[in-house]
Design goal:
- The chain has 414 residues and is mainly alpha-helical.
- It has three domains: 43 residues; 65 residues, no CATH class; 279 residues, no CATH class.
- 70% of the residues lie in helices and 8% in strands.
- It contains 14 helices and five strands.
- A three-stranded antiparallel sheet has the order 2-1-3, covered by helices on one side. A two-stranded antiparallel sheet has the order 4-5.
- Strand 1 and strand 2 form a beta hairpin.
- The longest helix is centred in the middle third of the chain and has 57 residues.
- The N and C termini lie far apart (88 Å).
Length: 414
């Protein structure tokens, strides 16, 4: 259904205007005719373009500036207006201008940010609302900024750890493609075309010297023909992962593929899992610090991370807290069992934010350790493959020449 704006006249000559929802322009005309209106202007209403999601750097800039003006007591709309005039980032500039318009219209800042869901993450408005109600906005913004820094550092470390092995693997495939398509086929074809003859002193006649193509050459040729296919699949995988990550960051995509594929990968899956758990615990600690009760803080963390398995685990913990369903804890799949245990202990000791922040730091360090181990686990296999390839090439190229020299009897001179 689309919205159409019209201008018309009623049967008594009185002007009428407004908007109507219809599936098409003809449908809108039929509806207006059914209302006994004589239409003389009808056009679809163009929906405003959806705002683009702020990147991590833009969000960090906005968060730091909002923290400064909230600490200094400067009116928010005035401070944001000054910031907007100095910005170079078009998405952030547009988002702040929309916020200033809403604030000047009388909207509270938490509602204005929540209304700009296309630009800001969903949890941001909730955290600001909770921080204002508890008079702790500056501390909440500081915690959120530290959380973004930690998650950005983990994400960058993971990409750097995977980039070098991935580049080496691409280089290996390119080398195989070059050998299998251009270099080795011509070399072995020329060996087979050449007719080497040697005079046999026993039979007093010339005999042909056959050239033998070793099995390693056949294997390298086969892998070389397969390498472009692997390169194509590798490129498609890279595009799919890039689009998936972009969709996941935008908050509009389904993240089940992370649960079903990424977290099950043998080398990087554990690091990604611990990163998500650390992020979930971080947001939980921030929500509790902002004055939210534990179930609301858990659901805030569920919405912030938006990983289906963590959302299900969070609901299981909420069920245990709100309804005493101990059996629900058996359904936890991604969160470590130390988390519900920490919930029970923290509720008794009344140190919820500190307990969750400490647990988040523990899993963040665990993720860092696993990320640092990625090159050490992948590179030996790649270097072994490169060594085997180099040895196979030398063996394949030299063996036919060695057999030829032996048949010609020239090797006795060396």
């Amino acid at each position: 259904m689309a919205e159409y704006r019209y201008r018309a006249e009623r049967f008594d000559g009185v002007a009428a205007s407004g908007a109507i929802n219809a599936s098409s322009l003809d449908d809108a005309q039929r509806q207006l005719a059914g209302l006994n209106l004589r239409v003389y202007e009808l056009a679809p209403v163009e929906s405003p373009p959806s705002p683009s999601r702020l990147g991590a750097g833009d969000l960090q800039t906005f968060n730091e500036f909002l923290m400064q003006i909230s600490s200094a007591g400067v009116p928010v709309e005035r401070g944001l207006s000054l910031l907007s005039s100095e910005l170079q980032s078009p998405p952030l500039k547009a988002a702040i201008e929309r916020l200033v318009r809403d604030l000047e219209a009388g909207e509270p800042i938490e509602r204005a940010i929540s209304a700009s869901r296309g630009s800001f993450p969903p949890l941001y408005g909730q955290l600001i609302d909770a921080g204002i109600k508890t008079s702790n906005l500056s501390a909440i913004l500081q915690q959120f900024g530290r959380h973004m820094d930690d998650m950005s550092e983990l994400r960058d470390s993971l990409w750097r750890a995977c980039a070098y092995p991935a580049a080496v693997f691409v280089g290996l495939l390119l080398l195989l493609s070059f050998l299998g398509y251009w270099l080795l086929p011509g070399y072995f074809a020329s060996l087979q075309i050449m007719k080497f003859k040697v005079f046999d002193m026993k039979t007093f006649q010339y005999i042909s010297v056959p050239t033998h193509i070793p099995w390693s050459a056949t294997l390298i040729l086969y892998l070389g023909r397969l390498a472009p296919v692997l390169l194509g699949l590798y490129a498609l995988l890279g595009i799919a992962v890039s689009l998936g990550v972009r969709s996941a960051r935008s908050g509009r995509g389904d993240r089940r593929w992370i649960d079903r594929i990424v977290l099950l990968l043998p080398i990087v899956g554990g690091a990604v899992r611990d990163s998500y758990v650390a992020s979930w615990l971080d947001v939980l600690a921030i929500g509790v610090s902002a004055g939210l009760d534990l179930p609301r803080a858990i659901r805030l963390a569920d919405n912030a991370v938006a990983l289906p398995s963590l959302t299900e685990d969070g609901e299981a913990i909420c069920g245990q807290i709100e309804h005493g369903r101990e059996a629900a804890l058996a359904q936890i799949t991604r969160l470590p069992m130390t988390v519900p245990l920490a919930v029970d202990v923290a509720q008794v000791s009344a140190h919820l934010p500190r307990s969750f922040a400490s647990l988040a730091q523990q899993y963040r360090e665990q993720a860092r350790r696993q990320i640092r181990q990625i090159p050490g686990r992948v590179m030996p296999a790649l270097l072994l493959a490169i060594g085997l390839l180099a040895g196979g090439i030398m063996y394949s190229v030299w063996l036919p020449m060695a057999e030829l020299l032996q048949a010609l009897g020239l090797n006795e001179r060396f």
